[in-house]
Amino acid sequence: MESPREALSDLPPESKSPHEEGSIHASSDSQTASEFINGQLQLEADAREALPYSFDHCTQPLGALRQNLFSCLTCNPPPASPLEPYNPAGVCYSCSIACHGEHTLVELFNKRNFTCDCGTTRLPSSSPCTLRINPATGVKGPVHSQPPAEGNTYNQNFRNRFCGCGEFYDASRERGTMYQCIGMSREEDGGCGEDWWHPECLLGLPRDWYKAAEDGANVERSVGNESTDAATHGDGNEEHPTPPDFPDEEDFEALICYKCTEANPWIKRYAGTRGFLPSLKYGGRSREEKDAKREETTTNAMSSPSGSSQTPADPSLSSKKRKAEDSDSDDSFVSAKKVKAESENFDSETLGESVACYYSSLPPAIDGPISLLSRDEDFRLYFCRCPSCYPSLSKCPQLLEEEESYEPPHSEDGGESMGTGSLLDRGEAALSNVDRVRAIEGVMVYNHLKDKVKSFLQPFAESGQAVGAEDIKAYFEKLRGDAEAVRAAGGTAVAGGSGDDEGDNRREQSGY
To answer: Is residue 200 within 8 Å of residue 222, measured between CB atoms?
Structure first.
């Protein structure tokens, strides 16, 4: 024999009472105070993970830094054409959150020698800096219309355009990987100013190069390269594969684009020498060049001359591909060890000013635009620093030593920062700083409201019915004295209900 509960569960949905349906729906939407607080704490923890740094202070007082920058497209909308005039501006990490948190931003990543533009004439006065001290008031913000730093330089990235193709960047549509040039020269001097590049654009290929096959054989080969490149190049993005002539991202450390090498042609001679991979030629290599390079690589691998002054130019000697070949050829392993030994001794032999010019022994520069890729992070050791070469090298300090990028201090849970810690912790901290009399008054108000809410919830607790959002909304409308609640209260009074308590509630609420 079925129990009453089992019989009720077997009824079709339309046979269940409206009260039962409402209770089930309210229970699914209900949430305890503990669950709500834990949910909020988790959301705040996720936010701190996404924004790990404190954003209490603008970097403008620190002067020019290599730092992470953002361009605000809301305050400075870029024109449709890149040829139209534009007043670019960059803001630091802290200002991007505290002052432009609700705006449309594009992340530019690290730019060198830059002072935050927030609060200057490069941005509208309607978006002031809220983190700097206002000279007129002596307190934080709002600061606006100050003169910008004179040493800042800007490139097309501040317009939200990137790469040699000048493509408008859309993170939701962008496919593949982009690489940042170290920026030997500014944009106005013929360089790129630390722009970001698509691999195919460095080779002079169109963005949709992999779709441009003219016959069935080319299509089949393109598909084959797509799957092969995903395995060997590691991009795993079938929608936009890496060009075959572009090395795996793990095989090089730094990029110098063809714009910067054209602005500094002396650096072209380092292509394929110690510390550098073979050049990436804009427009690609001809079949004759590829055959010659393949023959040269084979000859170097077979002969491995002990007196060689240069490393083999084949990128297969990079760590990942070299390990795959070690099991097949002991000679390749010996050659790789010899190259490593020469690299370790190179700096002590060539960095002194008394050493003969190493640059004069390099092969002639390749004709046409080329890009350079360094083999590892120690590529700066392989630049000649003799008295005749050092003046050209010193114009690019980023080639002399690795640059340090500024990072704001990390946020800490429960810290003193206004932008860190949970809302609960910050509320408790604020309460501890309140005047004693006002704190007592606040506690009394809290206890009074608690009693009112408790009396409201008591019937639900006794009946086991879930409290719905509409119940809570109606209760607080009644407390506030909203129009409908006032009429309901008036009707209750006419019927003999207690209207005094309702009036007291309205007066007390308005005084909080």
So the answer is: no
Length, in residues, of the chain = 512
CA angle 430, 445, 43 (to 5 degrees): 45
Contacts of 6 (CB under 8 A, 6+ apart): none
pLDDT tens-place string over residues 348-406:
444 444 468 999 999 999 999 999 999 988 999 999 999 999 999 999 999 999 999 99
Contact 251, 377 (CB under 8 A): no
| Residue at 277: amino acid letter | L
Whether residue 269 contacts residue 364, with contact meaning beta carbons closer than 8 Å, is answered with yes
Cβ-based neighbours of 410, under 8 Å, separated by 6 or more: 52, 53, 54
Mean pLDDT for 36-65 is 85
163: left (phi over 0), alpha (psi -120 to 50) or beta: left
CA distance between the termini of the chain: 59
Taking the C-alpha atoms of residue 348 and residue 67, their distance in angstroms, rounded to an integer, is 33
Residue 464 pLDDT more than 90? no
Phi-psi region for residue 224, left (φ > 0), alpha (ψ -120 to 50) or beta?
alpha
DSSP assignment letter at 326: H
d(C-alpha 261, C-alpha 372), whole Å: 8
Question: Is 70 exceeded by the pLDDT of residue 446?
Answer: yes
In a 3-state reduction of DSSP, which class is residue 372?
Answer: strand
Tokens of 220: 């089949």
Which residues have a Cβ under 8 Å from the Cβ of 511 and sit 6 or more positions away? none
Question: Which long-range CB contacts under 8 A does 504-511 form with residues at least 24 apart?
Answer: 505/452, 505/478, 505/479, 505/481, 506/479, 506/480, 506/481, 508/448, 509/479, 509/480, 509/481
Contact 160, 106 (CB under 8 A): yes
According to DSSP H, which parts of 433-497 are helical? Answer: 436-463, 469-480, 483-494
Mean pLDDT score of the chain: 75
Give CA–CA dist 232/249, Å, rounded.
10
Report residue 342 CA to chain centroid gap: 38
Provide the 8-state DSSP code for 374. Answer: B
What secondary structure does DSSP assign to 482-494, as a single string? -HHHHHHHHHHHH
Residue 148's nearest CA partner among 76, 56, 79, 74 is 76
Chain CA centroid to CA 399, Å: 25
Strand, coil or helix: what is 222? helix
